[in-house]
Amino acid sequence: MSRRLRVQHWVACLETRVVPPAGPNNFYDLLKVGYTHTIPPDAEFPWELRRLDLFGRFVGGMGSVDFEIPVVWLDAPNGAKTVETFGPVRVTFRRGESVRDVVFRFHNVPIEGTGRHRISLRAVKPLRRQSLKSEFLMLTRLP
Amino acid sequence: MSRPGEPGLPVPSPMDGPSSPAEIIDCYPVPRVQLVVTIQIDSSTDRSQLVLSTARFISTVLVADRRLRLVVDPVRSRAGDGEVVVVLKPGFVSTLTAERLGKMLDVVREAATGFKGATLARVEVVPQS
User: Fold this and answer.
1) A107: which chain B residues are within 8 Å (Cβ-Cβ)?
2) What is the predicted ipTM?
3) CATH number, domain at B43?
4) Structural domain that includes position B49
5) Is A85:A68 a contact under the CB 8 Å cutoff?
6) How far is Cα B120 from Cα B38, in angstroms, rounded to an integer?
7) Nearest Cβ partner of B23 from A2, A82, A103?
8) Which residues of B touch A95 (CB under 8 A)?
9) Higher-confidence residue: B12 or B21?
């Protein structure tokens, strides 16, 4: 099996809970998973999504890896626009740990308009940024 | 729903030990930075020569690292009292941006040596205002 780092799941949700008690094999509860999210009708842009969680399942991780997470507004008037980049976030993989679950939590994600948004997970390397997985959200305004 | 073992998906190997505890990592935006170049203009310089030198200088800096996608910020760039401050903002926002901009400092200094009629007073990477 290749030891190359892969991301098996990259799932956005509005809330995550860890099922207690704390231990080595906790489950995560992912709440409010969905593609379309609504913005209040009176909201002005830039608006902020108060909280967004991204659940990631890594396979084949070794050592420490730095990640960055760009949020791209795909339907911006002049073409795709990066509205924010989060990071660097370091995940250290333990020896012999072939699968690792991590939740990345974002606060006050800027939203500059309605439409499709792409949230990518990239491994930061000195010469290139390797995109591992993308999640997509649609933001619409409530009537 | 995807499962380990499906074609095209990575297959976890048996673990040697327990997995890590549940982990929720708070993430913060990458600090936005910009390149600020301050140039002192020699008052005796021919203006047409100055315009040409400026065009060459800016062009050299903008294309030195195309991945940074540098653009002149027209709002924050300014001129007065024989001094020109050029603010260059990167369109590339990454955790690597500050490092790449740092490498631009030498590029700017080198480009400034061929700047007729002006002297590089200061070049620095600073947080975006």
Assistant:
1) 26
2) 0.89
3) 3.30.70.600
4) 33-127
5) yes
6) 6
7) A103
8) 16
9) B21
Structure tokens that stand for B51 in this block: 């315009």
Binding-face residues of A in 78-117 toward B, CB within 8 A: 82, 84-89, 91, 94-107
Question: Is B37 within a domain?
Answer: yes
What's the token pair of residue B92?
């590339």
Choose the closest CB to A98 out of B15, B18, B93. B15
Each domain of chain A, given as residue ranges in start order, spans: 6-141
For residues A62 and A91, what is the distance between their CA atoms, to the nearest angstrom?
10
Q: Quick check: A21 pLDDT over 80?
A: no
> Chain B residue with minimal CA distance to A22?
B21
Check CB contact of B7 with chain A, cutoff 8 Å.
no
CA distance A18 to A32: 15
pLDDT in the model for residue A2: 47
- State the Cα–Cα distance between residues A50 and A110, nearest whole angstrom: 9
Choose the mutation target among B1, B25, B93 for the interface with A, i.e. most A CBs under 10 Å.
Answer: B25
Residues of B in contact with A68 (CB under 8 A): 30, 94-95
- CB pairs A-B closer than 8 Å: 104
Region A6-141: CATH code: 2.60.40.10
| B108 in any annotated domain | yes
Predicted pLDDT of residue B1: 45
Query: What is the per-residue pLDDT across A90-123, written as a single tens digit (0 to 9) for each?
Result: 999 888 888 889 999 999 999 999 999 999 999 9
Determine, yes or no, domain membership for B17.
no
Is residue B91 domain-resident? Answer: yes
**What distance in Å separates the CA atoms of residue B117 and residue B83, rounded to the nearest whole number?**
12
The answer to whether the predicted template modeling score (pTM) of the entire model surpasses 0.90 is no
Q: How many domains does chain B have?
A: 1
